Amino acid sequence: MDDPDSRVVSEVRRTADAIGSMEVRGAATIADAAAAALRAQAEQSDATTAADLRAELRAAARTLDDTRPTAVSLPNALRYVLFDLDGETVEAVRDAAVRRATEFCERLEHAQTDLGRVGANRLRDGDTVMTHCHSTDVLACVEAAVAQGKSLSAVVKETRPRMQGHITARELAALGVDVTLVVDSAARRYLNDVDHVLVGADSIAADGSVINKIGTSGLAVNARDRGTPVVCAAQTIKLHPGTLTGHTVDIEMREESEVIDPETAATLGDVRVANPAFDVTPPRYVDAIVTERGQYPPESIVVLMRELFGEATAEPWVEK
């Protein structure tokens, strides 16, 4: 057959572009889009053999996986869809890929609802939470608490440089939450008035470390100093299987134009602009990790990870 990379369908490439540009954001949304894109590859492929179709699906997975190195929900989605595609005919492989992609997306939708119920149990009527960045898992917890009749307030950090906190502020306000939007550097000032720091995660390592939007780690350290509990809301698709064998989580570096416009940068002279997208919060600064399967102390997350993934860390789209 032709080079399988050349046979990746346009829907996969569009999805990869949207994930890479952050038009599609949030771990659950990224995972859902990736699984749907692989389903499109299976449905639209004109491969004539089962081996050719498997090669195309692996090529599509590589295209998607290259977009966001820190968003572990993405490879977890790809791993799920590509598992056990050993059929001997094109139809068998196609049917298996479509079925697994559809199953993954349906389970994903159910998982966030379950997670929201678990997280809502930590929130009491009258509580104030502080958020960082934008997380659909965090929003699910708040939405479930509001549905239970609890009145909540939120202090929302803007989360520079992309200001994802503005999205969070708007969505929380739409739920009826009393929202105060603050610049990132004002977080410590408001921690005495906060009952919980509630953050999401791009991925969670086997030791319970939380990899999330840059600024999360500093917020967690300040919260511990103030005695404010830090809760991470994260679906199990965000667990990082590779860290079971000591793999280091990659931290994505983004364009300097997100931090400063080219015209202003030119006036600074020989100055390098660094724009790390994420940081790592050690487990000692995290009080609980809330998932759709319950809440766990960070040191116990490795047990859940082994239950879900075993010791396998293989990525079936990687060329051997």
Features:
single chain, 320 residues, alpha/beta, Rossmann fold, 2 domains, 7-stranded mixed beta sheet, 3-stranded antiparallel beta sheet, 11 helices, 10 strands
Task: Provide a descriptive summary of the structure in words.
With 320 residues, this protein is an alpha/beta fold. The protein folds into 2 domains: 4-114, Up-down Bundle (Four Helix Bundle (Hemerythrin (Met), subunit A)); 118-309, Rossmann fold. 43% of the residues lie in helices and 12% in strands. It has 11 helices and 10 strands. The protein has helices at 10-20, 27-44, 50-65, 73-82, 90-120, 136-147, 164-174, 187-190, 216-226, 262-266, 301-309; strands at residues 128-131, 153-157, 178-182, 196-199, 203-204, 210-213, 230-233, 278-281, 288-291, 294-296. Strands 3-2-1-4-7-9-10 form a 7-stranded mixed β-sheet. It has a 3-stranded antiparallel β-sheet with strand order 5-6-8, with helices on one face. α3 runs antiparallel to α4 (73-82) and α3 packs parallel to α5 (90-120). The chain is globular and about 65 Å long. The chain starts with 9 loop residues before the first helix and ends in an 11-residue tail after the last helix. The model has no long low-confidence stretch (mean pLDDT 92). Catalyzes the isomerization of ribose 1,5-bisphosphate (R15P) to ribulose 1,5-bisphosphate (RuBP). Belongs to the eIF-2B alpha/beta/delta subunits family. R15P isomerase subfamily. Keywords: Carbohydrate metabolism, Isomerase.
